[in-house]
TrEMBL record:
Protein name: Uncharacterized protein
Top-rank taxon: Eukaryota
Amino acid sequence: MVFQISIGDVLALSKLAWSISQAFTSGRKSAPAEFQEVQNQLSSLCHALDSLKSLSLRHSTSADAGSGSNSITPILQNCHFTLEHLEMLVSKYMVIGDQEGTSESQRKRWREEIRKNWKKVRWTREGGDLARLQHNLGVHINSLNLAIAVLNSEINQNIGHQVEDVHGMLREIYTWFTRNLKGRVTSFHKPSSEPQDGSPELTFSLHRGNPESYDAAPICDNASFNAEWLEHLNKPVFQCNCRHQRTVYGDAHDEELAEYFVSPVSLIVRLNGLSQSWKIWLSSGRTSRLTSLIMSNIPSPKELVAFENVISDLAITAARPAIHQGMSSIMVFPSINPYMELPVISVLNMLCDTRRLYNSITNVKLTANGHRYSTGPIETVQLVHYRNLTSEGAWLFSETADVILNTHSEAQNFDITDDGISEFTLTVDNQTDVAGGENASHVLISGTDCLSRTKAGRENTVKGVYVEIELRDEDSATYLIWQLRHLQAGLLLFKIQQIQRNEKLVFELGLGLLMVYDYHIPDATLKLAMNLKTKDYRLLFSNASRSICLSIETVSSKSLQQTAKASELYPSFDNPCWVAETNLDGVRIYQQRRRASLICADAHTQQLLALMLQSVVRGESA
């Protein structure tokens, strides 16, 4: 059946719940302590209604919403009755104070009679007490969450059916391809995923774990991984190859490298966005403590692919305790992919150095919905990015990164710390506006989401937050802006190279030699991904070493349909295209805005590419 829920009705109900929750919030100093739980429940109800609003938008383009939508209407009606009665009570028992310099919502307080006689108030339409109101709110929240889960499941099932239809068509194409081109498939190029014979061994430089000393002499400038170091935890991770090559740092470093072993929390993460440096955490046999080293100077893009495979293997090893024992830390923890509502393991993927900012933030102002909060002094800042390991063993990269602000343990006299909030997490993507403020020591972040977490673990999310970060001096502010932009550059790089967590892989195809723009990409691979929220497509191209990667952005279903139905054999796209080139000097990212025509050197591969794009269009119209 067609989805019958009006987005306007859900939005109006959400605004009503938010308005009442703000009344309970602003009046809490004049209210009995029992009102605190009602305030928390109203906030949870707002979040549930916001989720339903987002779900309604996802359903608006669906031809079949499933039977789950039948149960939403009575839930919303009952919720409306409860909120309407509460709104009447707020209007009756709240007054506006006469404090100057504050907004009307901040001056609201409960009448004195409510403090004395709140047990006699009829908190529900049926004349129930406050406990009955709390029960009703809990029923509304649980019912909404259950219905949302059912509807979300139906959406994902519909998407899954569409992708399965496409896969079925691809199997038909493959059968046609092998039947009609039998005896001529020798000209068909396939990407060489296996390392070639005689390929150079993966080597790198090792430095102490202080990013500020990268330019100092390395521990070893020609190190490599020991064979089977991941399988045998009592085997040193590194070996020195300097004996095979004269270096300015000496002949061999075997003794020093022999002290580093894999730890259960060992991980390799990229540093500072586009830099060609990585940080690894290992166990030191000399100190019996966890220590970190910096890895850099990987000689070629071909070795870089091998290195990325090592990073993934170590990440899977680090994820096992989270999978089997439920263990979690800032580096690895179980989570839910919000776009698929499926469990994943989040693993730290990128980190920006922020140690210079320790105790450098004097205050952070958070402004949203006409309200402003101050955090007080911030002790530590962490800029982190995660990738997600799915149950199928695939890696999906988060499209956003986190700015984690930990409040000072001795912060006092700031309104938000009265609630025991110890951590704020700001969400940024590669397009989030980051700039300096009018005051040179301030940093501004616009339109972000903010998750606050109390010492007891209670969480609350506010969207559309304007953030003003106040630092001790201009140098600290400049450094923070640099690091945030490094973080955004890294996000853009991972987007160009990898499937994101808000996307689903539709198909992957080896193209052999591909000509697009003025690039000749040997051993090219195409991945077609669909955005689970917008339903737009993205085409990702790369060579075997990923030294050249292209991402043709936001190809709509209509555009893909027009391209696939065109009489010409060579698909063309007018959409913007991001390009990432990796070489010994680093990573260069830029954008192409010309029309892109996809030309394969092999004629049979060209025909197969056109057929596969057509199969996607057929799958959508089926």
